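Hey, quick one: can you model this chain's 3D structure?
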Amino acid sequence: MQLALSLPLLIIPVLFYFIIAFYSGDMQSVLDSALIADVILRSGGIWKLTVGDVFILLTLLILFVEVLKATRVSTVSLIDHGLSTLLFVGCLISFIVVKEASTSTFFLITVMTLFDVIAGFSISLRAARRDIGFPAPT
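Sure thing. Here's the predicted structure for all 138 residues.
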């Protein structure tokens, strides 16, 4: 159970991305495909909701949960931060090396994994600083 709590949730969109990428063949056409018909807004603009947009939206929601998880101060959170760092490094290497990962959507997912790492360590350091008690000067 503790290991499940320490896994970074951002691995979910990364895995879904690669599953879709390797089974679809052309990831960019999948990401650009519309989910709903064009919506004509009151301003006259046309809004097109694509698969890539939904991917980013869901990844942002998962990032929010990850930031909330970062507020825990325990050994599990240290493992979570380490695994989040490994996930970021894996995403960065994949973006540079893997052809299917060379899309703007995957780049934004990679940036969100970086934000998870930075937020996790920043929040943990801030919380740890509050836990340390210094004697009052006399």
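One thing worth noting: Helices lie at 2-6, 11-24, 27-32, 51-69, 75-97, 104-131.
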